[in-house]
Design goal:
alpha/beta, Rossmann fold, 8 strands, about 40% helix
Length: about 290
């Protein structure tokens, strides 16, 4: 009887142990499948298939210049969107320009396919002459120290006027700076002087007469390709709430020898300070610079 009892005990223990092994394997199998699923999801997430492929094999570094009272935050969101949505653009340099013209540079140009370069004036309410000199210092450094031969240029608000004046006043020393291939002035107040002004009552002819850009238009490079973007919230006359459309599109009388086009963005996100936060503007820039529809 003792021997029979011992045999039965062994059988029971063996059965229990076998059951435990089977259950353990079953549980491990479930955990393993769960882990594989998670790993697969993580891998899928690590490859951003939403990035839009660039059609052009070669693109140039893009320099971004903010507007009146602008800061590093002015173009930050746009740069982040461009790098996340499109295959090619990558943030490379953040350049602070002191009132003395001295540059404080963060970042490095390495092997980025399309380096994005952001320029920030420490005095963001400087006169047109001063901001133009600061932009000259930056461009000269890009050419001499970074050996950048050609760039595209994207600006917001007063930065568009500064960039235009830079292109006009450096016509005789153009070899000292990178060649500007394409230029995108977003809501540029071409009729302003050295800061914001109410030009709503000015006619186009009056804007021409008071503009510092219009008389020098013949000094602009003739092979420049320009896309002017203006905002229209509700009424055409109101423009983007800060810059009227007739001011933003005064470029049609300034860029008379260039390839020039205009695009109007409408709606709530067409407000002046929201234009560089607007994905529609991103799409216009991507189409113009990189041929992406």
């Amino acid at each position: 009887m003792k021997k029979l009892g011992l045999i039965l005990l062994v059988i029971i223990l063996s059965t229990t142990f076998t059951t435990f092994i089977i259950l353990s394997k079953s549980n491990d199998g479930n955990v393993s499948k769960h882990k594989q699923s998670k790993t697969h999801e993580t891998i899928s997430a690590s490859f951003d298939h939403s990035k839009i492929q660039l059609k052009k094999k070669h693109s140039y570094p893009v320099v971004f210049v903010h507007g009146w009272t602008g800061t590093e935050g002015s173009f930050r969101s746009m740069l982040n969107r461009l790098t996340s949505v499109y295959e090619g653009p990558e943030r490379a340099l953040l350049i602070y320009v002191k009132p003395s013209g001295e540059l404080i540079v963060h970042g490095k140009i390495t092997d980025q396919r399309i380096p994005l370069i952001q320029v920030v004036f420490q005095n963001n309410k400087g006169s047109l002459d001063n901001q133009t000199k600061w932009l000259e210092s930056t461009m000269q450094w890009l050419k001499q120290k970074q050996h950048i031969q050609t760039i595209d240029l994207v600006t917001h608000s007063f930065g568009g006027k500064t960039a235009t004046y830079f292109l006009e006043t450096t016509s005789k020393s153009r070899n000292d700076y990178p060649y500007v291939h394409k230029f995108v002035p977003i809501a540029a107040p071409f009729s302003w002087r050295d800061g914001p002004q109410d030009d709503s009552k000015l006619t186009v002819d009056q804007m021409k007469k008071t503009s510092v850009l219009y008389p020098k238009r013949d000094q602009l490079p003739h092979d420049l390709d320009v896309l002017a973007i203006g905002g229209e919230i509700n009424k055409t006359e109101a423009g983007d709430g800060t810059v009227k459309l007739k001011s933003a599109f005064l470029g049609r009388y300034i860029f008379t020898h260039q390839k020039y086009q205009e695009k109007t963005v409408t709606g709530r996100m067409a407000q002046h300070s929201k234009l560089h936060e607007n994905p529609k503007v991103d799409a216009l820039i991507a189409d113009f610079l990189w041929g992406i529809k």
